[in-house]
Amino acid sequence: MLPLPAGEGWGGGPKVQIVTVGSITQNEKQNIGKMRIKPKFSAMPAPKLFRPKLKDGETLVLEGQGGFKFHERSGWKVTLFFLTNQRLIGCQLQKVTIEIPIESIIGITSSTQVYVMRKREILRIACSPSCKSGGGFQSPGGDRAGHVWFVINDMAIWKNAIYRLALLKVDEPLIETIGRDVGADSRDILWYLWRQHHGSIDDLAKLIQAENHRDVLMLIQNEINPAAIKRAGCPILSFERSHIDPETGETIGYAWWMMGTPSADLSRPDRLLDIMDEGDCIRVILEVKQVEKSDLSLHVSRDQLVISSEKPGHQWTETFQLPVDVTYNHHDLHLRNQFLEIRLSKAKA
């Protein structure tokens, strides 16, 4: 090999400094071993966390990592869950994979199964067949799934929240039952929140003439909610930083709320009811809420009309006295804007 001319590179190029291995110090060898190639910018940026778009009046309650499946023996699908006051939503990557309307949940049961190499509490969520959810609430066979198996971190908190949103029904007999298990001040708080739906800690303290807020909190923590768990299966009072009043649409901040869905009050005096004789038929106009036409069933017995709702969470039956005998044949039924209109032909003499 020809020697390289001093001060020149190959072909007369720039100068090249040749360093032999023997000229590298021990410290330099150690530094070479620690060298890593670090690109200035990542070739693939981390995907943004997908969050479902909330509907009008919908508020986020909980979110967390978990899994679900449609069959007990199938594999788990790892999912990021969001619980709102209207839906239980599961997301994977950039799409919604499961969506269960709260109003369609008709029952929950718990069991123990293996999830990620250890035994965990699992919820089996039962949903009504009429569930019209999008976002993948469908079994692999193509038919609507009646049950979903659900697991998540902090299961006790999630189970409590789902039960309160979907299954807890509150009425005066329940308040009276809980009230018998607590003291006078706790009963005053219960009835106040039953009538007003919500109240600030200041309101509750003034109500029972408490010396400080701590006295109110102790009553809720040590008397009211433990009694509610015993009678209703879960706490009945909840502190919310921000919550929309369903009756007024107003956003209420930092207040205690009576949880659960109020039972339907069919006998309230302000509900519209009109029964009219129109010659050859009887027309009944009735105000109904939170039901669809498919939820209702009719039964006629001479001069009595029986209307029933089979919708989960809004089940009721009411009997109406008509002025004459009628027949079920050739009846008409329409439901528009929460008003049910029924036409029944008069029975022939």
Written overview of the protein:
This protein has 349 residues and is an alpha+beta fold. The protein has 3 domains: 60-166, Pleckstrin-homology domain (PH domain)/Phosphotyrosine-binding domain (PTB) (PH-domain like, Roll), CATH 2.30.29.30; 169-262, Arc Repressor Mutant, subunit A (Orthogonal Bundle), CATH 1.10.10; 273-346, Immunoglobulin-like (Sandwich). The protein is 20% helix and 38% strand. It has 6 helices and 19 strands. It has helices at residues 26-34, 155-166, 172-179, 184-196, 201-207, 213-232, and strands at 60-69, 77-84, 87-92, 95-101, 105-115, 118-127, 147-152, 169-170, 198-199, 237-244, 251-258, 261-262, 273-277, 281-287, 296-301, 304-311, 314-321, 326-336, 339-346. It has a 7-stranded antiparallel beta sheet with strand order 4-3-2-1-7-6-5, with helices on one face. A 4-stranded antiparallel beta sheet has the order 13-14-19-18, with no helix packed on it. A 3-stranded antiparallel beta sheet has the order 9-11-10. The N and C termini lie far apart (127 Å). Mean pLDDT is 78; it is low at 4-12, 16-22, 35-47, 130-145 and 264-270.
Measure the end-to-end span: 127 Å
Share in β-strands: 35-45%
* Tally of separate domains: 3
| Main sheet record | 7 strands, antiparallel
* CATH homologous superfamily title of the largest domain: Pleckstrin-homology domain (PH domain)/Phosphotyrosine-binding domain (PTB)
Order of helices and strands: HEEEEEEEHEHHEHHEEEEEEEEEE
Low-confidence stretches: 4-12, 16-22, 35-47, 130-145, 264-270
| Rg (CA only) | 33 Å
Query: In which range does the helix fraction lie?
Result: 10-25%
CATH architecture name of the largest domain: Roll
Q: Could you tell me the CATH topology label of the largest domain.
A: PH-domain like
Shape: globular
The count of DSSP E runs of length 2 or more, i.e. the number of strands, is: 19
Estimated structural class: alpha+beta
CATH class of the largest domain: Mainly Beta
Write down the overall mean pLDDT.
Answer: 78
Strand order of the largest sheet: 4-3-2-1-7-6-5
